[in-house]
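Anyone up for a design puzzle?
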């Protein structure tokens, strides 16, 4: 009974503390414009406008054909922060297909989260470090879950360096702990490598991304998608 009470208290804590959430996302009635609108998108209560992939990569076309995007998405509890990186299209945009899903042959996701879809590791991770994964989680590739982003265009040379750093960070297999080292801590390490000012990793993921943006007002960014109230 004591264990049940402890886990119940932790479940409440999961819903109130900042950090990384379950990989299962909550559906809501939001819409997408341009591309192919779908009633199945579980977005953020906002209308999201996007332009699908131009059909051609920016590599060999633009001086900065690559990108790295710090992102926050919707989820069951308090959300998740992660990074997306890869090739831009020839119009200098992050490549989405007509269903507003990142094109996997051109993009990759890295993010820290417990190595399970069960809620138990998330609850235990508020008391102690738990094993983690550093790849994509459910919803990371879909524009419908996106809440906030900070997208930076990169030259081939700078992109190669940051990708090598991300690979190294992933191979280190850091443990996940909600207060000590969570998904935004992982993002902070990447931001620091890029020379950005880092921010409080305990902020809710959308607030973390916005704080990162405000802390780095001089950084060159891409416009990304357009949001409006639904």
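Challenge accepted. My sequence:
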């Amino acid at each position: 009974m004591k264990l049940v009470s402890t886990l119940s208290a932790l479940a409440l804590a999961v819903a109130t503390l900042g950090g990384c959430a379950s990989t299962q996302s909550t559906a809501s009635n939001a819409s997408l414009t341009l591309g192919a609108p779908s009633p199945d998108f579980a977005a953020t209560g906002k209308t999201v406008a996007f332009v699908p992939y131009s059909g051609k990569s920016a590599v060999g076309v633009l001086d900065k054909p690559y990108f790295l995007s710090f992102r926050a998405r919707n989820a069951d509890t308090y959300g998740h922060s992660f990074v997306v990186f890869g090739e831009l299209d020839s119009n200098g945009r992050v490549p989405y297909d007509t269903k507003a899903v990142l094109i996997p042959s051109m993009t990759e996701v890295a993010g820290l989260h417990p190595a399970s879809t069960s809620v138990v590791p998330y609850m235990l991770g508020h008391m102690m470090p738990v094993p983690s994964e550093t790849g994509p989680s459910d919803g990371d590739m879909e524009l419908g879950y996106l809440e906030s982003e900070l997208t930076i265009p990169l030259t081939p040379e700078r992109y190669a360096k940051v990708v090598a750093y991300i690979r190294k960070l992933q191979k280190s297999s850091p443990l996940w702990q909600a207060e000590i080292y969570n998904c935004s801590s992982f993002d902070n390490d990447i931001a620091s490598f890029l020379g950005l000012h880092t921010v409080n990793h305990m902020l809710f993921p959308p607030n973390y991304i916005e704080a990162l943006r405000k802390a780095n007002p001089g950084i060159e960014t891409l416009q990304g998608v357009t949001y409006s109230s639904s």
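A detail worth pointing out: Residues 156-171 form the longest helix (16 residues).
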